[in-house]
Amino acid sequence: MKRRYSVPLVGIVLLLVLAGVLDRAFPLPQPPAAAVRVLAADGELLRAFAAPDQTWRYSIRPEQVAPVYTEVLLAYEDRGFFYHPGINPLAIVRAAWQNARAGEVVSGGSTLSMQVAGLLDPYPRTLVGKLRQALRALQLEWHYSKAEILTLYYNLAPFGGMLSGVEAASQHYFGKPAGRLSDAEAALLVVLPQRPSDWRPDRYPQRARQARDKVLRRMHALGLWSETRVEAALREPVAALPPQPPLLAPLLARRLQQACLQCRDIPTLIDASLQRRLQHLVGRYTRGMNEHQSLAVMVVRNRDRAVRGYVGAARFGDRLSQGHVDMTRAIRSPGSALKPFAYAMALDRGLIHSHSMLLDTPRYGLRYRPHNFTGGFAGPVTVTDALQRSLNLPVVQLVEHLGAERLVAGLHNSGLAMQGPGVTDPSSAVVLGAVGTTLESLVGRYTAFARGGLAGDVRLRPGDPDQDRWLMSPGAAWISWRILAQNPWRALGQVGESSWVLGWKTGTSYGYRDAWAIGVSPEWTIGVWVGRPDGSPSPGRHGRRTAAPLLFQVHALLGETGVPLPRPESVSRETVCWPLGTRLDHPHNRNGNCLQQHQAWLLDNTAPSTLAQAPTAEAEPLLRRVWVDATGRARAPGCRAPGQHLSMRQIAIWPVQAEPWLKPQWQRQQRLPGPADSCTRLNGTEVPIRITGIENGSRIQLPPGRRVLEVDLQVHGSQGRLNWYLNGEPLESEREGAFFTLKLSRSGFYHLSVVDSHGNTDAMRFTFEKAL
Question: Per the database record, which ranges form the Glycosyl transferase family domain (predicted)?
């Protein structure tokens, strides 16, 4: 009896040993590598990179596949999948009988395990090849569970062209993941691997429909689906997209793929819906651009600095505009885009408030003499006006008091990427763009205006660190944002009083090479760059004209509600006085010294005095102490007559550089009393500079028959070179010395001023009228 059982047992053991030896000698091929997928925050495919075998194969797990697909697959292909050992003898016999009756191959009898084995180890269409497939199927069942074999089929089944796997087929044909397949779509993808070249829905929709409908009717014949459900699926048309992978945020996808060559699925924080709309918007915007120009746009959610929209080039892959270059990462000059940081740091240092007086005037005797973008001068301006109008001279004045080293150090500590000589040898030119940075890094620093002064790097992937770096105080951040949050249509003189929550700043680098626009709202920070990737100039293409319109369109696309940033407790609203810049209730502003009032935002209840044009020891005090006699004439205390009573007056005066832009009654010759004739100690203390040729307040008419009036002017008492200004705009002098010819052709009210090389000024107002 024992012998009767021992012989089969030995045979089984030998068979197992033989199977083990063959398994080690002929191991199962490893599944081919999947394509690389870069995914949006919700899992939607942004861009894919083909697998090493140039196949579009996207990894997918069973739980990510629509249950209806698995139901139809098992019912149509292999109803005994979970019960057979890899081959189904009954199915093979049935297929052989059907083929013999039909006289052709109408059924293969292959199980899903056999199909997977054939995908892993392709075999010739011969009897020997079929035997090898069957043996591989048994080997497959030896090594893998049923769920793992099903997963291999999900990822390896052919679907036409270079598509492999149900996820790739669903994405390419239907534009959606396999987890959202409809009944009809699932039926089509179940049958398609049988004849993938002949039943491709993008090429042969009629054939594909016939094959699909066969599967759907089988589900009813098997009693698995109701007739109503099948009829509904049969009515669904066969419509497929061309099998092309999506290209959402293509340059970001390439960047992340190159940074992780071993990754298969790369998650991002991109909002796929926003990215799609953003690319469409950029596509329309670029139609009006030069073919050699490119642009970049970055949209960042402030609360976590997540990048939700990313456009690295105007036309991806375009040769003329170098569409392969990611301009969000290119080092470029930011132009005036760094100015808000200088104002915020000056607020924190207690140098200014929102309406401190700054000087947009010529910088005579100073080493650094930049020009404004428009070439003219505005005279004394508020901090708010200077920042909103992006005036160069006031911010240079501010940086000289702040210190260029402190500005660069603050930006560096915040993590701003900077390159160029301005980093190692800081100067005031840094604030006008004398360093290089990237759009991505700049946007990360701008988020500080909406995050209480905390800056940081933007985040591209869920695992990227969210680290804050202090750049400015919450109060300085809010005041700076409040200044920048001006309605652009009102600023351009158009009607528009709706709530506006976007603080924005433009910038233009030297030679019109780069146009910038950065915007900060409570929810979003948006960065826009426009220019040529090769650094060539684009004359006339400055930030306000080229980049700002796109910034406003992107912000409108976001649909943000008009709820402004909350004001910190450190910020208060007070009335301040010019020319001294201090509070209205300050004792120095009494007795007629408050010549102009402003409603200002103060940080930590601080109202600093007006800054000098340059931080030098020779800076002139704006509060003069003057001794006057009973007649109101100035006297030195040592030259009063016996018994004569003198009184001391404190008189606020404007900076001497502002004189040409002041009202006559605010100028020094009107504000300060003249010296008494008998007080020789004061004689000669005022520089006698005076324009002759036109009387102050006069009315001039153009004689009949003439188009242009030429008036010869002369300046008495001047020293050195003269600089003339008409309504604040510089005039070119055709004559040297104290003589000047003024040419008038337009009727109007004029303000004429002159400044010598020592800063002495004279000014007058007159009216010019053409003869009727």
Answer: 44-220
